[in-house]
Design goal:
The protein has 238 residues and is of the alpha/beta class. It has a single domain, classed as Aldolase class I (TIM Barrel). It is built from 11 helices and 8 strands. Strand 6, helix 8 and strand 7 form a beta-alpha-beta unit. Helix 4 packs parallel to helix 5 and helix 7 runs parallel beside helix 8. The radius of gyration is 17 Å and the shape is globular. The two termini are 13 Å apart.
Length: 238
């Protein structure tokens, strides 16, 4: 698994349909359904995307008491998606509960279990913010490495992190622990609200196991051309 994941950060299902209509049948990227789209369209958007033969990264970033997360993840495990997320900061018991719920739901539905990914530090967060607002006294790579170890020890398959932290994560967890990276921009693009940003080629060189690309594709004048540019840079950097 080393996908380029296209983030469908749109406000409703109709816009998604219009956007995906640009892509020929030969282009079947993995797509990300985040909170905005899922809260607007619900599970029906997942059914629609599965019917279109698209693999799905369902990025809802669960963060609650272990019982609630386990029950919620049981429902997500039924959906036949490829990747799901929790916040590593929820702690060991919550991550383990997410793993149990995910596996139970997938067994009940007879589908392959999704990979469980734990959010470390958001790519919109700087080290100064983390230390001032979260009262985390270590540097950012140390915090991310610690959360990655915690996630791995409690059943996660990988983490969501900036590609800048991939080398220290893999050093702490091993090569088979997934590092999926948002905060990806083409060199000519603006960074917007992202802080720890890299290009597709840089992510590949840093050891990324997959990248999530949103605005560089979805806001491009020609999304298909932009997608293939991202894909070419990603492949060239491996």
């Amino acid at each position: 698994m080393r996908p380029v994941i296209m983030a469908l950060d749109f406000e409703n299902q109709q816009i998604v349909r219009e956007f995906l209509a640009h892509f020929p049948a030969t282009d079947r990227p993995m797509v990300k359904v985040g909170m905005e789209l899922f809260y607007a369209a619900g599970p029906s958007i997942l059914r629609t995307l599965r019917q279109d033969k698209l693999q799905i990264f369902l990025d809802l970033k669960l963060y609650d008491i272990p019982h609630t997360v386990e029950r919620a993840m049981r429902q997500l495990g039924r959906q036949g998606v490829a990747l799901v997320t929790v916040h590593a900061a929820g702690g060991a018991a919550m991550i383990a509960a997410a793993r149990r719920g995910l596996d139970q739901g997938s067994r009940e539905a007879g589908v392959a279990p999704a990979k469980l990914l734990a959010i470390t530090q958001l790519t919109s967060t700087t080290e100064a913010q983390m230390q001032a607002e979260q009262l985390v006294n270590v540097d950012l790579p140390t915090s991310v490495q610690h959360l990655a170890r915690l996630a791995q020890a409690n059943g996660a398959d990988g983490v969501i992190a900036s590609a800048l932290e991939d080398p220290v994560i893999h050093a702490a967890t091993g090569p088979d622990f997934l590092c999926i990276n948002p905060g990806i921009r083409l060199a000519a693009d603006t960074t917007d609200d992202q802080q720890r940003v890299v290009t597709p080629a840089q992510a590949a060189c840093l050891g990324s196991d997959g990248i999530v690309v949103g605005r560089s594709i979805t806001q491009a004048a020609d999304p298909v051309v932009a997608y293939h540019q991202v894909l070419a840079e990603w492949e060239a950097g491996k």
